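sanity check this record:
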Amino acid sequence: MKQLALDIAPPPAPAFDNFFPGRNAEALESLRALAAGTGEPVIYLWGVSGSGRSHLLRAAGAASARAVQHFPGEPTVEGRVLLLADDVDFLAPAAQHALFNAFNALRESGGALVASGRAPPARLALAPELLSRLSWGLVYQVHPLDDQEKAAALARHAAARGLRLPEEVSGYLLRHVKRDLTTLMGVLDALDAHSLETRRALSVPLAREVLRSSLALDDEPA
């Protein structure tokens, strides 16, 4: 069979609307409030790689009513600034000191901070004074989606495109495609486009054919 190109588009920019919350609904609502300038001004997010914590941090910046600055760098924290500090567990000592000073300036000026790392503050190897500041506000573990939640996210994404996603197709993708949600949704979009182009219904045989021919399978289907 002729090899097909699976045209996977780049993922959309992080936003609250394209984040499927799963068990993270409370964190999502707190970040919405912070971005609107009405909630707790300090939020720390932690979770494993792929949990969505960086997505949420950047989505808060995209939705913010405040001026947004990123750390590390040379933040100017005068006024109602939202400072975003991702992966703080990797900060060198000098950067930790700079973030501590920036945090204090934010508190004085009425700004806000969203920070993230791989572990809760108590388990980070950072300067004690910075750890205390990161613990001042709300601390949320960002839970990665389980398979059932990923299937629900795929179904919601398909519905937004006017597509009905059979459960057996989402199950097939979860078994045979890289399991991060960005890849799964990109593959689903590409399959939808191929389905429309060939005027064939979205089905497991169609998915198997396209994924096999494009070498996009994680492993051979049973």
Q: What stands out?
A: The two ends are 20 Å apart (CA to CA). The chain has a mean pLDDT of 88.
